[in-house]
Amino acid sequence: MKTAVVTGAGGFIGSHFVKFLKKKGYTVRGIDIVKPSFSDSDADEFILADLRDLDQARQSISAADELYMFAADMGGIGYISAHHADLMRNNILINSNSLLVAQEQNIPKIFFASSACIYPVEKQLVAELTALKESDAIPANPDSEYGWEKLFTEQLCLAYRKDYGIDVKIARFHNIYGPEGTYNNDRAKSPADICRKVAEAKDGGTVEVWGDGKQSRSYCYIDDCCEGVYRLVHSDVDQPINIGSDELITINDLVTLVSKIAKKKLKIKHQLDKPQGVRGRNSDNTLIQELLGWAPPTSLKEGFAKTYRWINTQVNG
Ligand code: NAD
Fold it and tell me: What are phi and psi of 66, to 5 degrees?
């Protein structure tokens, strides 16, 4: 039986990934500063620890076959646009402590959750953009401190491979969404936020959208994210790869899609003074197809039907 340590196990992706590993027969230790918000953790042990503190990292990260690094101070565009120094410092401490303890504990395989936010801003200036390839990352110019920190930690992970031979795997997630994600505070990201607004609106009512709604994104369903991480970790791929859907959609069209799922006719009110992030962002899946023979298969229609159903139940019972 394999053993794994999952950091950020109280968060959205980490809590789903613990469930995923349990189904594969792993013994799992989860670590976070909070327990999962919406259901009990499936982890065999769940340790509350602040990974910014090296002593707590040493007490919580035990020897294991695999370490999955999902812990991060993060949130939606509103949160990332408003938190700079603390967010960078928190994440640098979480990640540098986790890597140091992994090396001390001789953990042979590590996964790091990076982000599409590492890509240069000038490649994301138009909504109808060319999808982002992994090789676009450097020369670097991410549009947020969050993106710079992710890129720094990618390099730190690669340095641990160089110096200590640790088998490091890195995925750049593109907007992961699904049930049991934060939907009702400033850490909520656009998919959950839009589902909540549609669930709260009365038929014929109005939904507020940040920016002019013509900004485009791709969204990857949580089950595909877990499957992609697992396939990557158990492959011989040694370079960062995108894990994202390549089905591009504007925020306005996403509101229309979710409204249809909800069977409501809704108007959109644009809030032009709110942050909207980069103008367009999509995942180029050529490399993941080539290296893993797989790419996230869930359509937006299917993924948002499941996500809306869950958020609607939270909002309306
Ligand atoms: P999340 O906020 O739901 O989960 C992150 C977890 O880390 C939280 O439960 C939080 O309590 C925990 N954490 C924060 N500070 C900590 C600390 N000091 N010590 C221990 N735990 C701490 O976020 P998520 O959506 O599940 O994201 C998981 C990972 O994937 C993160 O690294 C994130 O940056 C990355 N990522 C996510 C997305 C996405 O769309 N959700 C996109 C790109 C990258």
Answer: -140, 140
Nearest CA to ligand 1 atom 20: 32
Give the gyration radius of the chain's Cα atoms. 19
Q: Is 146 a catalytic residue?
A: yes
Verify whether ligand 1 is closer than 6 Å to residue 175 (CB atom): yes
Is residue 195 a contact partner of residue 258, using CB atoms and an 8 Å limit? yes
- Cβ of 115 less than 6 Å from ligand 1: yes
Map out the domains of the chain with their CATH numbers.
3-176+219-243 (3.40.50.720), 181-218+247-280+298-316 (3.90.25.10)
Residue 146 Cα: closest atom of ligand 1: 34
CA-based max dimension of the chain: 60
Atom of ligand 1 nearest to the CA of 36: 9
CA distance 93 to 99: 10
Question: Digits of tens for pLDDT over the chain (317 positions)?
Answer: 999 999 999 999 999 999 999 999 999 999 999 999 999 999 999 999 999 999 999 999 999 999 999 999 999 888 999 999 999 999 999 999 999 999 999 999 999 999 999 999 999 998 887 899 999 999 999 999 999 999 999 999 999 999 999 999 999 999 999 999 999 998 999 999 999 999 999 999 999 999 999 999 999 999 999 999 999 999 999 999 999 999 999 999 999 999 999 999 999 999 999 988 899 999 999 999 999 999 999 999 999 999 999 999 999 99
CA of 9 to the centre of ligand 1 (A): 9
H or E stretch at 97: helix 85-104
